Amino acid sequence: MVAESWVSSPQTEEQTAYAEAESVYRSFVYDAYTAADEDLLPMLNRLFWQDYDDENDGVYSALSRIREVLKAQVRYSEAAGAAPNNADPIAYFLTDSRKGNAVLYASATVQALRAHGIPARYAEGYYLPIAKTQSSADGTAALTGQDAHAWAEVYFDGIGWLPVDATPGYYFDAVALQQMVSLPDTVRKTAAIDEDRSGADQVVEPSGIGGSEQSKPLTVVKNVAAVGFGIAGIIIVLFTLLLCAMELTRMFLLWNAERRRRRMSIEERVRQSQKLMFKLISLWGIDAALGWETAATDKALADTLPSVKPGEYERVNGLLEKTIYGGIALEPFEERALDLFVQRLWGRNVKKSWKMRLKLRYACLLAAK
User: Fold this and answer.
1) Nearest CA-CA partner of 314 in 292, 345, 285
2) pLDDT of residue 92
3) Considering the domain boundaries, does residue 360 fall inside one?
4) Which helix (H) or strand (E) holds 78?
5) 337 and 316 Cβ atoms separated by less than 8 Å
6) Percent of the chain with pLDDT over 90
7) Exposed, middle or buried: residue 123 (CB in 10 Å: 0-12, 13-18, 19+)?
8) Domain membership flag for residue 245
9) Is there a single domain that holds both residue 176 and residue 254?
10) How many beta carbons lie within 10 A of that of residue 62, not counting itself?
């Protein structure tokens, strides 16, 4: 199942923004959610994929294979015992105890999908059967620990994460699963209705003149110059007030940002620097996003800003991916490198137009949105 054709060939700004964001996130997903446990990989390939017919390979075909193997290999039990010390729970479930609950079924499904190169992740929550709400007078139902459940989620390119389940008694049949997968693939299409903007027919007398009397000539303003100077004066006053308000707001935001930054954790400081970094890059007319076309962005920055050295953006992008996607805190020297790079994006020694100077001066207002 695939997404609409516009995901690969967007036609509108909204579609382009979605496609670009999804492309960046998809790269992260395939890096982070396709690696199976190395200790389990030989066993997973032997059990699930050694005799697998991949002629019609796909998510649903792979999931059907996993269900078949689990049905033949293990049985469902809510009271599955814990694995012995130093034993992997999934390996123990698949090869020794041969019985497990939804947690073990979901965990094994995730590892088997990843071993086959399909991005998958583990999810927990509550299972609410439709019959439970249908039998309720007001359509509500109380959930307890008895309703707790675990399942797997698979990433569909251009669509996102969708739930799949290999636990007996919970998963859908073939038709229902295909319907579930196809739901996000449907894009709401609206038709534009042209309004009749024509006015009422004009009533015309035989002479060709409208029925109403001819409008009298407008009174000519004698002192046009005075009116013009008055309007110009009002515009100047309003513009001055606007600049004063922007300067006061800028001063307050800079002071408040510095005060808050001193109390932030390193993770919060990094995210703040990331937000400001991409805002400044966009002001220079360069499209950029974390992990997206880093080499092209690096070259564009180096060509635009002499203070930015080739390869510097790629290094900073790697630091941000490490801490934001990988959850690894930056070292003090790495944070200083990030801050130094952001400072260079202000382009203080670069010749700029007055419009660009205004944009950079009030970038703090834009970043605060």
Assistant:
1) 292
2) 93
3) yes
4) none
5) yes
6) 22
7) middle
8) no
9) no
10) 24
Q: Is the pLDDT of residue 213 over 70?
A: no
Number of independent structural domains in the chain: 2
Tokens, residue 9: 């060939």
Joined tokens for residue 257: 């940002």
Angstrom distances, CA of residue 217 to CA of 214, 220: 9, 9
Question: What amino acid is encoded at 362 in this protein?
Answer: Y
Q: Which residues pair with 75 in a beta bridge?
A: 99
Three-class HEC string of 17-37: HHHHHHHHHHHHHHHHCCCCC
pTM of the model: 0.47
Domain range for 316? 250-367
Half-sphere exposure of residue 57: CA atoms within 13 angstroms, side-chain side: 10
Q: Are 330 and 274 in contact (CB under 8 A)?
A: no
* 342-365 per-position pLDDT tens digit: 888 877 766 767 677 666 666 655
217-236 confidence digits (pLDDT tens): 444 444 556 777 778 888 99
> In this structure, what DSSP letter does residue 137 have?
T
Residue 205 domain flag: no
The answer for 168, left when phi > 0, alpha when psi is -120 to 50, beta otherwise, is beta
User: 147, exposed or middle or buried, with CB in 10 Å at 0-12, 13-18, 19+?
Assistant: middle
